[in-house]
Amino acid sequence: MFVFARQKPTMVTEYAYHYWDGDFQNHQGKSLQQCFDEYGTGVQVVRPGVIMEVVFLDSRRTYGYSWMLRCFYATTGKNVEVRTYEAHRVPGVHPLNPLAEEN
């Protein structure tokens, strides 16, 4: 079972989903949910019109050591697919849709 980290997404649409891995652990052995709860999240503009939401993986809260929750177009909220996070490349990663979780 995968636990969805509850947060208020920047923009919720039918296209919105987050990447999550229930088995992931940071270098200190903390789960992604623990990192979410302890270190929080951040957003960064990665190129004009594209925003990335991340979970920080340690107390330094750097984007270099973070888990990408999602990358999306600022104007539409539609996700930008990130190949390294797609299930066929990283087996533990599963897209989760917050709208589906609530229904």
Strands in their spatial order, largest beta sheet: 2-3-4
**How far apart, in Å, are the first and last alpha carbons?**
17 Å
Total count of helical runs of at least 4 residues: 2
* Succession of helices and strands: EHEEEEH
Helical amount = 10-25%
General shape? globular
Describe the structure.
By secondary structure, this protein is of the alpha+beta class. The chain has one domain (18-102). The protein is built from two helices and five strands, in the order E-H-E-E-E-E-H. The chain has helices at 32-39, 98-102; strands spanning 18-20, 41-47, 50-56, 66-73, 94-96. The strands form two sheets. It has a three-stranded antiparallel β-sheet with strand order 2-3-4. Strands 1-5 form a two-stranded antiparallel ribbon. The chain is globular. The protein starts with 17 loop residues before the first strand and ends with a helix.
Structural topology:
Elements: E1 18-20, H1 32-39, E2 41-47, E3 50-56, E4 66-73, E5 94-96, H2 98-102
Antiparallel strand pairs: 1-5, 2-3, 3-4
Keywords for this structure?
disordered C terminus; globular; 3-stranded antiparallel beta sheet; 5 strands; two-stranded antiparallel ribbon; 27% strand; 103 residues; alpha+beta
Give the structure's gist in a few sentences.
By secondary structure, the chain is α+β, with helices and mostly antiparallel strands. The chain is 13% helix and 27% strand. The chain has a three-stranded antiparallel beta sheet. Strands 1-5 form a two-stranded antiparallel sheet.
